Amino acid sequence: MGFRRALPVPPVLADGELRRPSVPALFLLGARGAMHHPHEVADRLDGLVPSDRPDLVIDRILHITGR
C-alpha cells in the first residue's frame, strides 16, 4: 500500500468574480504550480484585478533581497 497525496481542487473563479473586489491585492504564485500554470494565471489576473502585476514568488523574493 502506497501513500497518495490528495490535493483539493481549487475553484476557478469567473472573470466577473475576480473583478468584484475594489481593493488592491497581492498575488504570489509559485514558479512550478502543481494545480495551475502560474504564467497563465498571472496573465489572466493582470487585466482583471486592481493590483500590481502578479508575481512569481521567486521574482518577488529576488526583488526584495536585491538580487
Please tell me about this protein's structure.
The structure is a single chain. The protein is mainly alpha-helical. The protein has a domain at 26-65. It has 3 helices and 2 strands. The protein has helices at 15-19, 38-46, 57-65, and strands spanning 28-29, 55-56. Strands 1-2 form a two-stranded parallel ribbon. The chain is flat. The protein starts with 14 loop residues before the first helix and ends with a helix. It comes from Streptomyces hainanensis. This is Alpha/beta hydrolase.
Fraction of residues in helices? Answer: 25-40%
- The strand order across the widest sheet is 1-2
Spans where pLDDT lies below 50 across 5 or more residues: none
- Overall strand count: 2
Distance between the termini: 45 Å
Shape: flat
Largest sheet: 2 strands, parallel
**Number of helical regions:** 3
Order of helices and strands: HEHEH
Mean pLDDT: 75
Rg is 15 Å
Beta fraction: 5-15%
Structural class: mainly alpha
Oligomer: single chain
Organism: Streptomyces hainanensis
Protein name: Alpha/beta hydrolase
Topology:
Layout: H1 15-19, E1 28-29, H2 38-46, E2 55-56, H3 57-65
Parallel strand pairs: 1-2
Short description:
This is Alpha/beta hydrolase. With 67 residues, the protein is mostly helical. Helices cover 34% and strands 6% of the residues.
Features:
67 residues; 6% strand; flat; two-stranded parallel ribbon; mainly alpha
